[in-house]
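Hi all, long-time lurker, first post. I run a small reading group and we've been trying to get comfortable going from sequence to structure in the token notation. Rather than ask abstract questions, I figured I'd post a concrete chain and ask someone more experienced to write out its structure so we can walk through it together at our next meeting. Sequence below, copied exactly:
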Amino acid sequence: MDHFTSDGLELAFLDAGERDAPSVMLLHGFASSTRVNWVDTGWVKTLTDAGYRAVAFDHRGHGQSAKPTDEAAYTPQNMAGDAVALLDHLDIRDTIVFGYSMGARVAAFGALAASERFARVVFGGLGFGLVEGVGDWDPIAAALRAPSLEDVKDPRGRMFRAFADRTNSDKEALAACISTSRKELTEAEVGRITQPVLIGVGTTDDIAGSPHRLAALMPNARVLAIEDRDHMQSVGDRRFKAEVLRFLSEDA
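-- Answer (accepted) --
Happy to help. Here is the structure in token form:
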């Protein structure tokens, strides 16, 4: 992966496919990375094989990017600013943005703050939780700061701690990230996202919140209910890939 600088931080990015092809910016989820969220699941290959330019980066605190431990560094506004900085670095005027889970929240903030840069939006793994929150995340921060997985009793905390251990993540940086990156948008703010939007959420996802309630707030949004998939399983689902490609082709 190459690197660019945003807000004084060195961030790692991937740029795959033909440079003159329409671009899709991929924003990964919490405790994940470009490799885990987008390469290992086959998304980069799916997009480039379909004729798109896949652009992705490791969020601050994740993967091969800088890992500040100051909670103030991880607001969704700051993280959306990183996405715009990468577009500037690559001289991409506008792009389709596809965010999963935390990445979907960052995509929403970006779609509002720089609507001229994000022509179409895909939200994966995030529904009405964008507005009402996605539950109590304090146990997750505590789990990340615990001495070991064996010390974590909270079920959701154990899930994310195990994932962070498996991806060899900086757990102190992730704990700082989860403290501030989960800022919500109001219903009125979501209603100002006027770009075409696709929302893909698994039918057994107990984190995302209702995709239908979220879609109802926007003038040009639709839902893909990914049958029998939870929050972790949905991202690589072949039905999700097929629907995203259909959605992207409508841009022509």
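A couple of things your group might point at:
The chain has a mean pLDDT of 95.
The chain is about 40% helix and 20% strand.
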